[in-house]
Fold:
Amino acid sequence: MQFETEPSISDKLRRRFLNSKRVLVLTGAGVSAESGVPTFRGGGNSAVWKGMPFEVISSAQVVEQDLPAVWEWFDYRRDLLQVLNPNPAHNEIATWQDRFSEFTLVTQNIDGLHHKAGSREVIELHGSLWRVRCVSCYARFEILSSRPRADACPDCGDPVRPDVVLFGEILPAGAFEQAAAAAANCELCFVIGTSGLVYPAAGLPEIAHVAGAFVCEVNPEKTPLSALCDELLMGRAGEVLPLLSRLGSDSRTTTGRVATRTS
Structure:
């Protein structure tokens, strides 16, 4: 496979975007980074919270051993996100749910910015910072910014924990299955701001590709998923996505760098 650089969105993507009815979007950390959401990853085994690396403080093991420390960490993260707003990429994706008759938004992000932008029925593969889950009965409750976070489950009285997928845990029941079914049925699949390294989420564009969908990646640089994509829109999602929605009126839409497959 070879790629050639062009200054505009391809006619093939234009036709797909204008005519497709079943569309799947997968978003990753790159989308939220444009709103200022930090990754907290550090680098190597560097500490990000009270001497602990990200993979430790965000692990199932620490939930079992020191739940108060986990809550300190996640409360801190939520406080940082409280003042952040959706960027043009979040806002644009929110409009697509009314543009396409069958639209599925799947995100790896836990920051809630898609909801804040107005997106509905988001499949949150890794959970949400804005929900808690009971450690015993598994009841889930929203965290409201207008009131203090509860420490105990209102149903059974046992402790609650962040409703996010931590290292060493599996995805929420049914979340990936629902996303995979949409991927297998879509005509057009967008992979936006994701590294393509985290599975099973990274398997969704692969499912769409095998099923015959047109797969488009939006990212500032290539990823391990780039080779299977039919088109790469190389740039910031907040700059590229608004251009897509203007395809109906513009004869050519300049995006900066676009790579299309030739074979």
